[in-house]
């Protein structure tokens, strides 16, 4: 005689399948979270490097501005005194 499966056995099978499905989804979410954390760290490093570069460039612009102001206007012709470029 063949064994007869009752409602209880079928419910256990469904519960195990559901648990496996949820476990697979949980693992997938954990993997995605790990990848996102890695990307966030990479982007944070890039932002820090760009901030350092911008600060350095701002300092150089200030130095150049100071040099231009210290040289004065004696080397710079006014727009009326300049001859137009050859293409005009």
Detailed description of the structure:
This protein has 88 residues and is mostly helical. The chain has a domain at 7-66. It contains one helix and no strands. The protein has one helix at residues 7-71. It is rod-shaped. The N and C termini lie far apart (107 Å). The relative contact order is 0.04. The mean pLDDT is 82.
Give the mean pLDDT. 82
Q: Report, as a whole number of angstroms, the end-to-end distance.
A: 107 Å
- Work out the number of β strands: 0
Helix content: over 70%
User: Over the alpha carbons, how many angstroms does the gyration radius reach?
Assistant: 36 Å
Secondary-structure content class: mainly alpha
Strand content: under 5%
What ranges have pLDDT less than 50 throughout 5 or more consecutive residues? none
Task: Describe this structure in a few short sentences.
The protein has 88 residues and is mostly helical.
Layout of helices and strands:
Blueprint: H1 7-71
């Amino acid at each position: 005689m063949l064994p007869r499966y009752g409602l209880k056995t079928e419910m256990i099978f469904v519960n195990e399948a559901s648990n496996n499905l949820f476990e697979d989804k949980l693992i997938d979410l954990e993997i995605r979270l790990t990848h996102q954390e890695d990307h966030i760290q990479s982007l944070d490093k890039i932002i820090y490097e760009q901030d350092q570069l911008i600060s350095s460039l701002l300092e150089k612009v200030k130095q150049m501005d100071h040099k231009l102001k210290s040289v004065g206007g004696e080397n710079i012709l006014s727009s009326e005194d300049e001859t137009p470029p050859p293409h005009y």
